[in-house]
Design a protein that fits this description.
It is a single chain. The protein is of the alpha/beta class and about 425 residues long. The chain is about 45% helix and about 15% strand. The protein has 17 helices and 17 strands. The protein has an eight-stranded mixed sheet, sandwiched between helices. Strands 5-4-3-6-7-8-17 form a seven-stranded parallel sheet, sandwiched between helices. The chain has a two-stranded antiparallel ribbon with strand order 1-2. Strand 14 (about 310-320) and strand 15 form a beta hairpin. The longest helix has 24 residues, at about 180-205. It is globular and about 65 Å long. The protein starts with a strand and ends in a 6-residue tail after the last helix. The structure holds nicotinamide-adenine-dinucleotide (NAD).
Length: about 425
């Protein structure tokens, strides 16, 4: 369904979307606090923003906070399969925020939507995977002149942006929201951990207890996935390329081995690396019959799907998010959610409580760009420590958790060097 300022699936889904957005808001106390604070002070008044984010209930609440702070905002999807169509409808109908996103959209429409969001002439971009920033640099350089800067939500986006900055190609400052402690320590670890398992269980309804499950990549997401899979009673193995991460996994109690060895034993293999063709033809050739493959990394390139397609004699879809490939020797490989982020495609993405912190960082960083852009060069910048601490403070307060503070004696002890044994 199309109107001049949106392209969404079905306006009639708005009421359902609104109910779910309100439900999510109950778990987002920090955003509620920022909404009430900034609706009075209007720090983003008149600021044109384009957000390329997963269109979920949590993003809807981020959008409401940005609007309350005065921003003139439009949204498009950051993944063709993660859009919640009811949320898109509610954003348009109930909160008057233009949205260009339809779940299952083709690559062509995906980029058409990104360009529709850029037609808004943003001065701030908010990305989850750097698609707005890269589209501006590749095809819309006219937009650079007015840009104050951008923010980036995820690891893969930050990697792309740092590569641009290293090449001297980045034309405006970007803040790496992903790298805030109050983002990746909680969102990537606990959010991806819980929701990836949720996506796999919803997609397959296979019992994890007693199964052998390999997590590929023991970064922030991988740690969370492994921890939660272990909690389900799975026998968890880790495949890594970084010695320190591999060592950490071993000391956390997991079996660590090359993926080729793990592939022979695994009932499930989950990628969370941000890397390409991590599961490749040799691994596919060695998998057990019935092995389930899922990806929680940003792009759908972690599993070599073209190789899987080429090796298969048959493909069918026994359940909504499962494609079962039959190989020439009769073995079946089950690919979830077409290799796209399984937690967003087969479940609802991260729980609201972690997105509360990630998105509080987004709001505070957008305001930081407005007030500080003149002092920021065209690089990828860390989230200021004061913002990170403020988000942690607000979250603790909302959780009714009080903590101790240093005494004057302790403060002096910790900042001096004279006192010894
Ligand atoms: N599903 C989600 O909702 C969600 C949320 C946050 C981040 N992400 C994405 O997940 C991915 C991982 O993010 P992260 O924060 O954990 O990153 P990270 O950098 O902390 O961890 C990635 C790990 O993968 C390892 N790795 C890279 N190539 C590998 C290979 N070929 N084999 C084995 N291990 C390999 C790296 O050594 C690293 O330890 C990124 O693409 C990120 O954008 C997804």
């Amino acid at each position: 369904m199309k109107s001049p300022d949106c392209d969404i699936k079905d306006h009639a889904l708005a009421e359902q979307g609104q109910d779910r957005i309100e439900w999510a808001l109950q778990e987002m106390p920090v955003l509620r606090e920022l909404t009430s604070r900034f609706s009075r002070t209007q720090p983003l008044k008149g600021i044109r923003m384009s957000g390329c984010l997963h269109i979920t209930t949590e993003t809807a609440n981020l959008a409401r906070t940005l609007r309350a702070a005065g921003a003139d905002l439009v949204l498009c999807a950051s993944n063709p399969l993660s859009t919640q169509d009811d949320v898109a409808a509610a954003l348009v109908a109930c909160y008057e925020i233009p949205v260009y996103a339809i779940r299952g959209e083709s690559t062509e429409i995906y980029y058409r939507h990104i360009n529709a969001a850029l037609d808004h002439q943003p001065v701030i971009t908010m990305d989850d995977g750097a698609d707005l920033v890269s589209e501006i640099h590749k095809h819309r350089p006219d937009l650079v002149t007015n840009m104050l800067g951008g923010t980036e939500e995820t690891t893969t986006g930050v990697i792309r942006l740092r590569a641009m900055a290293k090449d001297g190609a980045l034309q405006f400052p970007v803040i790496a929201v992903n790298d805030a402690m109050t983002k990746h320590l909680f969102d990537n670890r606990y959010g991806t951990g819980q929701s990836t398992l949720d996506g796999i269980i919803r997609a397959t309804n296979i019992l994890l207890a007693g199964k052998t499950l390999c997590v590929v990549g023991y970064g922030w997401c991988g740690r969370g996935i492994a921890m939660r899979a272990k909690g389900h009673g799975a026998n968890v193995m880790i495949a890594e390329v970084e010695p320190l991460k591999a060592l950490e996994a071993a000391m956390d109690g997991y079996r660590v081995m090359p993926l080729l060895e793990a592939a022979r034993q695994s009932d499930f293999i989950i990628t969370a690396t941000g890397d390409k063709h991590v599961i490749d033809k040799p691994h596919l050739e060695n998998m057990k019959d019935g092995c389930v493959l899922a990806n929680s990394g940003h792009f759908n390139v972690e599993i070599n799907i073209p190789a899987l397609e080429a090796m298969s004699v048959n493909k069918h879809r026994p359940r909504t998010s499962v494609d079962e490939y039959t190989l020439a020797d009769g073995r079946r490989i089950r690919l979830l959610a077409e290799g796209r982020l399984v937690n967003l495609s087969a479940a609802e993405g991260h729980p609201s409580a972690v997105m509360d912190m990630s998105f509080a960082n987004q709001v505070l960083c957008a305001i930081h760009l407005v007030t500080q852009h003149k002092n920021l060069d065209n690089q990828v910048h860390n989230v200021p420590a004061a913002i990170d601490q403020e988000v942690a403070r607000l979250k603790l307060a909302a959780m009714n958790i009080r903590i101790d503070s240093l005494t004057e004696e302790q403060r002096q002890y910790l900042t001096s060097w004279q006192e010894g044994t």
